Every structure is written in structure tokens, then in C-alpha cells.
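Per reviewer request, we include the raw input and output of the structure prediction for the construct analysed in the revised manuscript.
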Amino acid sequence: MRYRPAPVLGAAFILLPFLSASAGASTIEALFVKVTPWMWFEYSADGGANYVEEIVGQYRWTRTGGDHAGPPQGEFFSFCIEISQNVVYQQVHRFDVVDLADAPQPGGMGVGAGMGQAKADLLRELWARRIGDVVGPQTAAAFQIGVWEVVYDDGLSLADGSFRARYPALPEVALAQSWLDGLTGNGPFAPLMAMSSPEYQDHLILVPLPSAVWGGAVLLAAMAIVTRRASRRAAAAMAL
């Protein structure tokens, strides 16, 4: 009888308890400062029947309270994931910190209460791949446009579907489309969550895991690799 190695848990599986623990209903209170960098953008969320002009870009905040432990602290930025609601300049807002798949709440504009895991993972990949490219108005607009396309459409084309760009030839729209075209669904994935409120616009934020969690995960992953290699050697020896 051949030796059958015991299954080895991957690093992603090892991280699940930590990710679940960080996904509790904690709160953030933050002052909405401004949107910068930004541009104007015309879009349709109903398949081209009606178009709306909005400011798109990075939302800037200053945290003032809430019981959510860890980042974001101080000044931070976000991107909008809910076009059916607003936030108010120079006003403190209170949000629940929720799993990205469970936002936006209450939804609307063709999106139910929560975008689901597949779209959340696409946003995590978009962030991991492209947030470093956001350096000015055009790239900030492109990133926000890409976020809305993921949330409000079942595909990734800004030229058709429910969510559409008015002028698809604009540089920021073309850039957003190129970033969307580069998504594979296979990562890398950024540690994102959502600031969610039934009264205000929901937002996408970066919530890095504590360094102790990452350190433990890396150690466990390394142990898993060593165990896997040892199992393969043992299996090869038994097969001789």
C-alpha cells in the first residue's frame, strides 16, 4: 500500500480565523474632509437610459472615534461603493466596519444588500494591483470608475451592461477599462473592508491585519510548506 500524505492547510485557510475575527460589527466615526484628487464623470446605472454627472476621486477622512481597533487611524482615504446615497462635507459620520461582501447597505440601483464575495474579491484584486498607480485626478477617477463598474454591473465593460460611461473614449475611462481587463480573479488581494451605514454612502477602506497576525500566518505558512515537502519525499520513498 502506498503512503498517502496527510492534507496540509494552506496559508489562506490558516488566515480565516483571523479574518473572521476582524470582521465583527465594530464602528468608525470619521470627519469627511474632501474629495481629492478628483474629476467630473458622467455615468449611467440603468443601462444607458439616464446619465448622471458626479465628482469621482479619493475621499479624504479624519478618524474621530469609534470602537474599531487598529487602522485606519488619523487621516485616511476611501473610495465610494454606493452611488444611491451621499456623505456630507465637514461632518462626522458613524459607520459599521463590515465584510466587503456585505456592503453596500441598503444597496439599491440594481444591487441588493451586499455585493457578494465574487465582486468583493475583484475589488480586493483591483486595489492590490492598481492603488499604487493612483497619483492624480485622472488615475483617482479611473480607480473610482473601476470600483463602480465592479459593484454595479455583472460584467467588467464600461461600454455596456447596467453601469456605463457616457464617453468611453475619455482617458480616465480608457484607463479604468484597461485596469478592469487586467483582473483575473486570482489575486493578489488587498485586505479591504467596508464602512457601512443605512443613512450614508458606503465606502471601501484598507484595513491591514495586525503585524502579529501576519507574522503568525507567515510562520504557519512556512511550516506548512516544510511539512508538504517532507510528505512528498516520504511518498516518493514509499513508491520505490
